[in-house]
Each structure stands twice: as structure tokens, then as C-alpha cells.
Amino acid sequence: MTHAGDVHSDTLHSILGLVSLLQDLTSFLGTTQEWDVRDDSTTAALIKCREGLTLLRPDHPLLPGALFIIARVLISRFKALDHTADIDDAITYLDESLTIPPSWKDGSIRDEEQIITIIAGSLSLLGDALVLRFKHSNGFEDVDAAIENYRVALMLSSPDDRQSYLEELVKILRLRFQEHGRKEDIDEAIRWYREAVSLSQTEPDEGDTHESQAQYLNGLGDLLALRYRNFSQIADLEEANESYETAIALLPDISERRPHYLRDLALSLYRTFKAKGQIEDLNGAIDRVREAIECLSNGNLPLDEDDTHEYLAQHSKRLGYFLALRHKKFGLIADLEEAAESYRTALTFLPHNSGGRSEYLRDLAVCLFDTFEAKGQIEDLNGAIDHLREAITCQLGGNVPPDDDEAYGYLAKNLDQLGDLLVLRYRKIRQFIDLEEATNSYGKALVSLPDNSQSRPLYLRDLAVSLRETFEAKGRVEDLNGAIDCAREAIACLPGRNIPPDEDETYRSLRLLGSLLAKRFQWAREMSDLDEAIQCQYSAMEVDPTKRYSALDSLSTYLHFRYDVTGDRSDVERALDFSREALDLCPVEDSSVRFQIKSHMADYLDTQFVWSKRAEDSKEALNIRRELVALSEGTADYPQHVGSLVHSLDSQYYRDPGQLNSLDEGMKQLREVLRTVGHSPDHTDLLHQLGVSSYNRYQRSDAPEDLEEAITCFREVLALTPRGHIQYADYLSNLATSLQCRYKLFWRTEDLDGAIKAIREAVAISSLRQLDDLEEAITVFREAVSLSSPDSWGTLRNLAVCIDLRYGRLRQPDDAEEAIALLRKSLTLIPSGHPAKLRSLGALATVALSRCEFSGRIEDQYDALEVCRENVAAYDGVPSDSLHCMAIRYLAQAYWIKGDHEEAFTQFEEAVNLCCATGTPVMCFKFAMEWALKARTAGHSSSLRGHMKALELLDRCLTSTPTIDLQHQFLTENNSFLATHAASCAIEKSDLEIAVQALEQGRALLWSRMRDYRHSIEALHEVNPSLADDFKRVCQQLEHLTVSSDANLLGISPIFISSTPHAAVGLDFDVKMTNNRELSEHYERIISEIRQLDGFSSFLQATPFPTLQTAASEGPVILINVDEHRSDGMILRATEPPLLVRLPGNLSSTVNKLSTQLVVADRMNRDGDRYGVDRRSVRFDVKHILQVLWKEVCQPIALALQKMGHTNGSRVWWCPSGRLAALPLHASGIYNDKGVLIEGFPDLYVSSYTPTLSSLIASRETAVKDRSGPRLLAVGQSNSLPKVEEEFCKLKNLFSDDVLKIRDGEGAKADAVLDDLQDHPWAHFACHGMLDANSPFKSGFILHKKNLSLRDIMQAKLPNAELAFLAACHSAASESTSKTPDEVLTLAAAMQFCGFRSIVGTLWTMSDSDGPVLAEKFYKHMLRNGLDDADVRDSAEAVHFATKSMREAGVPLHRWTTFVHVGI
Predict the structure, then answer these.
(1) What is the pLDDT of residues 34-74, one digit of tens each?
(2) Secondary-structure class of domain 251-349 per CATH
(3) What is the CA radius of gyration of the chain?
(4) Taking Cα atoms as reference points, which of 487, 433, 496, 499 lies closest to residue 463?
(5) The whole model's pTM is what?
(6) Could you tell me the residue ranges of all domains in the chain?
(7) Which residues, including other chains, have CB under 8 Å from residue 909's CB and lie 6 or more apart?
(8) What is the DSSP letter of 1110?
(9) What's the Cα-to-Cα distance from 1269 to each of 267, 698, 1323, 1395, rounded to whole Å?
């Protein structure tokens, strides 16, 4: 360091010396590559800086910067030396710097924007430091604090810094989510990262690429994929796919990230396939991996050879896995063959000494085994065995450490698997050498297996099976004895050798030993073996008595087996008895075992029928099989049982070919099951069985329709079966036989030619059993659509839609032209009047509109217009549906693009009206919004009509949404400006009454809907009691469905209501939707009936203006509409029209700025109060905010009120929109440096707030009748807020014990508080308030153990409620980052909803010390005329005077201005 000579000198004696040293440190922070923070000079400099801090007074302008620089140096040294003290000190300094308001007195700071930038940077650095400390000490409180700091930094960030702050916040939220798994963390991370993606979407400079934007999009995909893996919401996967795809589209072809991004997309598509089962997702995953391999193979990426080969090996292995999976799902043998080739390719890129080579070889072996299973070719099984042997050789050659149990366990697994393959090959080709090697391999697996492995009993059983096979092949009893010994050892080792007892393993081993002993009995006729075999089943019963029924079933099979040897008929009878007993014991829910027992019973009855000849035996067996079919309907076993029944019926037919009844019954069963099975292997098997039965019936009946059905079945079986399938040749043979029969019947040469062709193909397949490699799917697809066959239009349209999707992402003109050409060709192929023509026309309209929007060419605009006209015309004479609505909307868009606005809005309006009759509410709402916004942009006369229609449809959308969480999410995404836009549009047309209605109709919608469910029905009950009761019952059920998380209420099905949107826990979401739809339909029907009654025609309709005007019956209500187009105040008067007060046009941006400034001021004031720092005001403190509010909003309103003649000191109600609702309008004014009001609203009027006009009207209508005087419930947490005890002492001095009830500390439990509120009209809360931006219904009061949430309050019904004093932070304000501020999701609003008519709350943080002062002043005013005469209407005046006394006592502005009054 350059100042090394200085740092060892005496202690700093001047501020200039400190400044010089700080400048040196700052300089070296910027050149860390030349500065070793670990040297002694750095330590000395830090010591001197710390000593120099004492030279700076607490309000010195250099102090924040000095603390910041020292903190940065400490952070750098912590990174180098890992000393905990350094990071602890850095955090302390940064925290302290944030409590000191920055100043521009020394000239280093130019304006308030720079101050905000500095504060944001400090907060971000504090967040970084907290993250570093967490990684060092793993204290999760640091993570929580870091998140809070990053959030505030983000709120204050400048556009240049915002993206980096977003990244840091997302990283730490993701970290906390991965530790705690809280959904709100990953939700918030995704929400912020979406903004980062949006900020990255800028056009790059010339020569640059979109690589940075692609990186953000890929990161968003990663977050969405992470949320899906934890919460299984399909929408996340679908959006992740789209994000990955867009990232890839933006990425340069030669980017080294491209293979990784393709891999990410492939994995996401794979997960989508696993979730949805749609083949196109798996196909997409396969295509993306292929593309990644191609990128790596062409040599254009900046990667070295080793990295390239490593990535190629990984991607080839993944491709093999995906192809093998597609085969398992859909049976395409070509996929298995390509999968095997991919695994082979992966091995060629993998170094021979790679530690993962054995895993790759094992994967190839498994793939070849699957190929063998599908095709039956022994060479595939041979390959599987060879590669598994090589995998084992690799493992043995790796010098496995003797104590590496995991490696030996993996080796043992491969050896055991090799034994399985060898046994299988023996069963196919009967070479004894395979059995010998299998036995040897199983033995080695047991030697390699750790003694304490839980797999030992399984491997011993595998060896026993191999020895049994050897016995059966060679007849050497020593092999069978060896098998028995292995089974005995499997049993013996279970409780010993450190293996945990496993009842299931013991049970399985006993069963195997029993079967082996029974086999030896069959060989040697030693009854002792059979006795022991039977004893094994009894022992199995003792091991697991719950499975006695299964052991009895096994005993019955042993007896049946002995009958086969001895012919003793009593064994069959006893076997039947055991089966019947087993069936009696078998639990009803264990259907699979019950089915097995019954199936065995049917077998025994068939056996008994052979010698008994009793018809009842055969009848009972057939009845059992019929019962199995009936019981298994809808299960996976159903087709199997149908097949068994049909075989049994066929047997009856074969016994008596003259009777077709049994054959007909079997065919009927097959036809019925085929309608339900769907396309699957079961479908193919049953269809083939039906073909065989139909052919057999034709052989007896000579009915041509039977032969036609057989041929149809065989043709469909072939169509459903891949050509390489092992049974394909057999199916061809069956078809050939049937065609030959039809040739003989009708002598058509086509049948003979078809039969010959089928036979030749069957012979060729049987001879070759090998398929040629398929070309790339896309090439085949293009070749297919190039054909002119009339039934290829669907393929043409689908290909065109895919190409159009690519056009939408890449904007390559050739894609649009090709898509249009394909769609036009499809239209020429579709027969006139066919429904498919409408779909192709709609697709063509979509592509044509996309092309003209992108190209801007006049000819494209005309072409799009003509296509859209043709699309609409095609619906003439066709019943309207959602596609018809979409066609009209496309036409409207075409007119809009062409510039014919008049015709465009005519079509938009028609589309909306038609959609209301045929489409979904959400579709209608989207159409109406598009109409309204475009009409407003164009200045068209229909704009207001469109906005009001959108407001009407918004309510319908909420009706179709079952839970309040989902309703809130819908509003978050769709309603951030609709009401204010509609109001400003109405004001422009001088229709103030409509403007008032628009604000009322589009704000606080959730409260409005819930209030409707609690609508007073006293008048209705007098007219029609039955209808009133029905309405009340349905409303209660709807409210329960919407809000409650209880299991059951009022008889509706239990429904789980999550606190986060779209939660997939509890009852399936479809059930909620069904309940909501049924209840909503019933609700609408009842309302329709009510409106037919005299005097109820407007029941629950949108509140008309005359009713809304009654809100001003006790004083003017000031509605403030803040909108991007214009901002206005409307003073609602009781008898006169509303008075318009024009406000500044830029008020919207001013309000947003003030909201941000208020957050900064609140934090600084809160930290200042906490640390006791005497701070100086800055331009954007509360004083500044109040001054701006006065000049911009409240002074014009006050002048208008005075001009109206509204008396000073009288009351007014504020009803502001948007973020203005969180600002202190009631306290606006000009204050001097000591907080003395010079001029402003508090000296003019007594202010109250109301969320909506309807809530104010409802509060006045629900006056408590015949009360004897208020009773007060006080709820607090003095254990966390020391001043609460003093506050409650003040209350005790004012209220007698019979009036006041206190619940404090551990006594303040949420459930008890809700119960007490039932009979306490007044409530006083003195506790912490909590806001949750992600789940606003979790916001609430922090009580003992469990919070009293906003949701809990909403569910409460408090008929006696009057006054609520909420001495809790933020109790009258929503979260500052809320996207739905007009929904007023505050604690005060919740208290008003559940019955409280007046509420005292806070807009931001309140000081604990102010609670006792304000409470005493407030309640003294309320009780000035005595307890019995206390009137809740005095509460606004009480708040006004209490805060005035605080103001006059010199309490800082930020402390008294937070208190507000809500309600009457």
C-alpha cells in the first residue's frame, strides 16, 4: 500500500488525515489484484481508521461513507483470511451507516437520487456480508436479514443497478428455499427473476448477441423447474419449457452454453412427459439432446477435445435413456435400437479409465435386455450379457478398496443382474453352461456383498432359484438340496449378521423354501419334505399373521399339486376349503390377493369338474370369473380378467361347438372392455382376441359379418403394432388367413392379393427380424405431408402450427411463408363442410396476422384481412362456439392493423358479446380488455363501454375461481389498472357518476364478493322465508369454499384450501372447481328468483350511483383516482352531483416516488429509533412527503371543500386509489423543522378513510341495537413489546374490571381471542403486525404460538363489533410492493369486513412508546360523557385530537402521522 509509511505513525489527529487514509483504501479497493489485504499495513490502516471514527460527530456527513469503506475492506479481508470477527464488524458498520441519513452538505452528494442509490448500495453490500457470514457460520438468521436488505435495496435501486440486485435477491431466496422448502420463497424468487428477464430484453449493440438475455431466460427455466420438482405444478414445467426454448433461440449457434441449455430443456421436457404422459414432450426431449450432440460434434464450439468428449458421452447416454423410456411407453422397437447405439456412442467418447465406465456399460446392457424382451432376438440378450460382464470387469479392475462397502454393493448388484440374464438365456436356448455361470455369478455376488447388506436374503433366493433351474435341467438332487440350503440361509441370516429384522424378507424366504421342499417331495416322495413345506406356510403365518390368507392360498396350491401327483380327490376338496377360508380372511381392500384366491378357486373347480361332472362346479368357476371381471372394472387388472373369462367361455365353446352362446358372451365382453381400455398393449391383445373369436364364430356360423369383424380387428391390430414387434408376423398370418376365407366367400382377387402380400411380409419379418434405421422424424414428417392424400390435412395443419411457433420465437420470414403454404394446401384437401376446415382457417388467420404484424407490408395486411374475413364467413350456419369468437377477434385485429379502427371496434364488441354467450369468462375478459385498451389508445367512443364491460366480466371471472387465493392471484395478473382506467375514461367524457361507479365496481373486489355472501336478508325473510334461508345456506357454503381451510362446514364435501395459490395438497383442484361451479350456479339461480319478487329487482346488482351517494350522508367523501392518463379528485356530496377537482397529470409517477420515499423514511426512522441516533431530515423524509401531498393533492381538495362551504373542523372521508391509499393524506401540510404545522389538512378537517363507498354504507347500516355499553377486549404481547404493560395500565385506569378483559403474553392465543371478540364490541390490539406480500391472507397479528391471520379474521362473524384499536405496525396499509393495492388487503379492512364499524390503525411502523400515550388520549375522549354514552362515531375525532396532542408535544412527524381512522 502506498500509505504504508503513514499507517505506523501516531494516531490520527485530524479529519483530513482520516479522509486521506480512506481515499487510499478506496483506491486500493478498486485495484485488488495489486493489494494483498492480508498484509500488516492493511491491519494498521484499519486500526487507524477505526480510531479516526471518533473524530466524526454522529451527524457528520463523512461518517456513513467512512463506515461503508471500512466495511468493504473488512469484507475483502474476511474473504482472504476467513476471520469471523472481520465479517461481524463489517455487518455492524454497515448497519450503523444505514441509521445515519446521507447528506449533501459537503458537496459529495448532488441530489436525492444519488442518496437513494447510496442507500441501495449499502443495503446490497450488507446483504452480501450477511450471506458471507451465513456461508461461514451457517446461521440462517443471516439469510433472513440478507433477504430483507436485498428487498429494500431493490425497491430503491436505480435502473442501472436493478438487474444485479435482482440476481442477488433471487440467489439468496433460492438458498433459503432449498434449506426450508417454503413455497413463498421460490415464488418470490421467480417473481423477481421474471423482472430480471424483462430488464434483459433490450436490443444488443451492433455486433453483440442476445447471449445475456438467453442466460436470464435459462435461469428462469431453472427456477421454474426447481419449483415444479418440489410442488408438482404442471404450469411451472410448461413455462420452464418455453423459457428454455426462448433462451436457446436467442443463443448464438457457436456459444459454448448451447449444449447445456439444450440439456436443460431436454430434462424439463422429460419431466413434462413424466407428469402428463404426452409423447410430444418426450419427443421434444429426444430432439433437444440430439441437437446438443450435433452442436458438440460439428467442432464449432470453443471447447477443448477432452471437454467435448466428456459432454458427448453424457448427452449420448441421456439420449439412450430417453429413447429407452419412449420404447417402454409406446413400444417402438426402433427407439430401443437407437438407444443401444447411443449408449455405444457414449462409450466411444468415454476414456477407458473413466470411473463411470461400468455404469455406462450397465445401461447399455439393460437397454439390450429390453430390446430382447421386445423383439425376442437372442443376440440382444447375448449383447446384454457381454456388456454386463465388461462392466463387472471394469469394476474388478478398478482396485476397489476393501472397506468401500458402497462399491462392493454396486459390484454385487451387477453380478446378481448378470445371473438373472444368464438364467433367462438358459430358459430360451437351454445351454447348461449359462446355468453354471449364473450360479457362479450369484455366488460371487454374495461374496462381494457386505455382511450387513439388506440385499443378502434376496441374493440368496436368486441363487436358490438358479440351483432349482439346474436341478430341473439335469435332475441332480444335490442342486435342489443346494437351493434348499440357500433358502434356509436366507431365513437364518435375517435376524443375524447385523441385518435388521425384515418380516417381509422372512416371509418371502419361507415361501420360497416351502416351494423348494414341495418340489423335492415331488422328486423323492418324502412326506417329510411336504410336511416341512406346509410348516413353512404356517411359519409364514406366524411371522406375519396379517397375511394368513395368503399362506392359506399357498397351502391350497400345495394340496392341488399333491393331487396332481397322487390323484387324491380329497386334496382338491381341501384345497377348495383352504381357498374359501383364505377368501373369508382376506381384507376387502386387498383386492389383488382376493382376485388371486378366487382365480385359484376357479382353477380347482375346473379340476373338480373333470371327475365330478357336476354342472354346479363348472357354473361356479364361470361365475367366479364373471365376478372377477365385474369387480376389477376400472382397474389395471380388468383386461386380464376379461381375457381369462373369454378363454373360459371359449373352452366351453370348444367342448360344445354347436352352442354359440358362450362365444357370443365372450365377444360381448371384449367389445365392452375395448371401449374403455384405450390404446395400450391390453387394447391390442384384447382386439386380437376379439378377432380370433370372430373368426372362430365365422367358422361355425358362416356369417360374413363375423368375418368382416375379424378382418377389421386384425387390420387395426397391425396398425397399432410396430412392424418390428415380435408378434407382428403372427398378426399378419391371422389377417392372411381371414382374407383367404373372404376370397373363397366372394372370389375377390383383392382379398387373395392381400392375403399373399400379408403372408410374404410375415415370412420376411420372421426371417429377418431386423428393421432399417429410421430417418430423422422431421424428415419423415415432411415427406408424409408432401403426399396429396385427402386424409393428410391434419398432419399438414399440425406441422404448420409447429412452424408458426418457431416463427413466433425466431421471426424467420421463411417459416411464416411455409406455414401459410401448408395451411392453404390443407384447406384444399379438406372436404367442404368438414369441421377440420374451421380449425385450419383459424390457424391460417393466426399465421397471417403474425406475419403482417412483423413484416409491416401492406400486401400482408390485405392478405390477413381476407383470410380473417373468410374465417368468420365459414361459421355461417354453424353453431357458435369459442372458435367462432376467436375468428371475430382475429378479424378485429386485422382491421386494427390495417388502420380501420371503426370496423375494428365493431368486431371487438361483437366478439365480446358472442363470447359472453359461448366462451369462458376469462376469454371474454381478455377480449374486453383488448377492446378497451385499444379503444382508449385510439380515442374511440367505445372505450368507456369496453372498460365497463371488462369490469362486469372481471366479476364473472372471480365467480368461476374457487378460492380466495386464486381470485387474488387472478387480480394480481389482470386488474392492476382497470378501475382507474375506466374512471379516468368516464371523467374524460364528463360522466362523473359512471366514474364513481367504475371505481366502486373495480376495487376491493374480494371484500365485495365476501360481503355479498353476508348480505342482510331481513327484508327478504319477511317476503319469502324459504328463499331467504336457501340463499343464506348457499352463501355460507360459498364463503366456506372461498376462505376456510376447515375440513367440513354445513354439509359440503371437505375441501382443503391452501394459503398459496394453486396448491396441490388435499382434495383435487378439479373437485374444488366442481363444487364452486355447482354452488355458483345455484347462487345465481336463487338471485334470479329473488329479483322476480316485488321490490327486489336490483338485489345484489352493481350498486347504482344514488345508493353510492348515500355514503356522503354524514360528510363529503373524497375519491382520488390516480391513473396514468389523468388524475382527479371527486368530492361526493349527499344531494348534489360530484364535484371534480383536476389534479396534476404526473400524479401517478409522483405517488410511486413518494411510496418509495416512505419506505426509506420508515426504515431510517425505525433504525434511528432503535439505535438512538439523532438524525437530520432529508428531502424525502416524512416532512417532505407531507409537503408534496399537500401541494399536489390535498390543498386543491381543501380549497374546493372551503368553496363548497364545508365547515372547518368537520369530518371528511378519504377514498384514494392505488398506492395513494398507503400515504398520509390526513396529515398533509407544510411543517417547519420542529414539526410545527404551518398550513395543512389537520388544522382544517377531521379525516377518516374508507376502502370503498359500500363498506362505509354497510358500516353505518349495521349499528348495534339496544347495547348497554361497550365492553373492551385488550390483546397484547408485553413479552416482546415492553410498553404494552404500561398501555394496559392506562386502560385499567379508564375501564372497570367488569368492562375490560385483558389477554396478554401466553394468554393471547388466536382461538381464545376470536371467542372473546364475540361478546366484546370494542377491541384493542397492542402487538406486532405482520405483512406477507406473497400470501396476503397470511398477514395478521403476531400472538402467542399462532398468528391471528387476516384469513382468520375474515372467517369471524362478529355481530356486536363496533370499535377496533389496532396498535400494531402496518395495520391499515397493505404491503408496499403489493400488485393489488386497490384490493385493500389490510388488517383494518378485515376488521371492518367482519363487523367493526370504526378502526384505528397505522400506515407504517409505530413506536412502542407511543402506544400508551395515544391510547390514553383516545379513550379519554371516547369516555368523556361516560361509558354508557360512549359513541363509536366519536372515534375519528378522538384519533384526531390524540394525534394533535402528540404533535403539540413535539413528537416527531413520522410517529404521530402513522395513525389513521377507518370507518364511520
Answers:
(1) 456 667 777 888 888 888 888 887 878 788 888 999 999 99
(2) mainly alpha
(3) 40
(4) 487
(5) 0.55
(6) 251-349, 544-630, 632-765, 836-919, 920-1004, 1016-1098, 1113-1231, 1254-1463
(7) 931, 942, 945, 946
(8) G
(9) 68, 94, 14, 17
